Amino acid sequence: MMQPVNENELCFPNLHNSSCRRTTRPPSTSMLIYITLSSISVLTVILNMLVVISISHFKKLHSPTNFLLLSLAVSDFLVGFLISFQIIQMDGCWYLGDVMCAMYLVLDYFITAASIGTMVLISVDRYVAVCFPFYYFSKVTAERTKMCILLCWASALLFHCLLLKENLQNPGRFKTCYGECVVFLNYFEGFLDLFFSFIGPITVIIVLYSRVFVVAVSQARSMRSQVAAVTLHGSVRFKAKKSEMKAAMILGVVVVVFLLCTCPYFCLVLAAQDVEVSASSVTFLLFYFNSTLNPLIYVLFYPWFRKSVKLILTLQILKPGSWETNVV
User: Fold this and answer.
1) By CB count within 10 A, which of 111, 257, 263, 296 is most buried?
2) DSSP string, 125-146
3) Would you state the CATH architecture of domain 36-324?
4) How confident is the model at residue 144 (pLDDT cuts 50, 70, 90)?
């Protein structure tokens, strides 16, 4: 004989058997999750907003590589807001309706894809800069970089609007009870999403950065053997090469952290039979936390970011002509 369900265990008590059940946790655990998610959300939004303001405002930072960092910061900034939706459904219940659920899911897929696409562009940028330095400044221009970023975001949006078309056309069609927010993908659609959002981009990133590090190590050895006998002209070339390799190493850290944060989640999704299990695990939190870590990496390795933040927080950017300040 089935025991009657306590109304406190339901997302919508007035709907009785049609309502989903809440996820029950000890109050201390719920409070810990709430504080953790809220802190990550606020920190992600604030830190990435500082990156966006820095690169957008200061003219000296308007370089192809920094525009890619700007694109990544925008996607990470939006991820900070998406975390708030996770806080709303912390008890396993969705209260914002079917249309908002469909919009949230599309935004989640779209922003994630744009972030991963930007990582691929960063890898391509460093590959050309380190492996083909003589062609870099003539081929990789600010305008071409902006165009690539625009295409990346547009293609990510179009792809996931088409992929989730049924979920958008019929919001709530695939839910099994009231209070559930789910996305449905058939086997073929799921494979396409996994390939274009994870397998393909990760393969490109690993292959390109493997080549970058091989060339960087080779160039470092070559420069060490020549550093004692450089001319003035050679010294300039030496500094240029050193600068490009330093940038490659810093962005390499960003890429490695990205892989460490996202691979566990996608691997679990690949192996799991139930998507809900993977989405509620620690790997899901780690996946979002990557958006918080990126600006912290810039603080550690980029002097220009520390200078920019100081100018922003002291409101120096409000002064006329502050955009021409040399923060490099």
Assistant:
1) 111
2) HHHHHHH-HHHHHHHS-HHHHH
3) Up-down Bundle (1.20)
4) very high
Which residue shows structure tokens 């019929």?
170
Q: Yes or no: say if 249 and 216 are a contact pair by the CB < 8 Å rule.
A: yes
So what's the pLDDT on residue 248? 63
> Per-domain residue ranges for the chain?
36-324
3-class DSSP state of 97: coil
* C-alpha distances out from residue 320 to 72, 105, 235, 317, 323, Å: 28, 42, 37, 8, 8
Residue 172: left (phi > 0), alpha (psi -120 to 50), or beta? left
Q: Find tokens 């979002």 and name the residue.
A: 288
Prediction pTM value: 0.84
Quote the CA–CA distance of 125 and 131 in Å, as a whole number: 10
Q: How far apart are CA 35 and CA 39, in angstroms?
A: 6
The model's confidence at residue 328, banded by pLDDT at 50, 70 and 90, is confident
Q: Which residues pair with 10 in a beta bridge?
A: 21
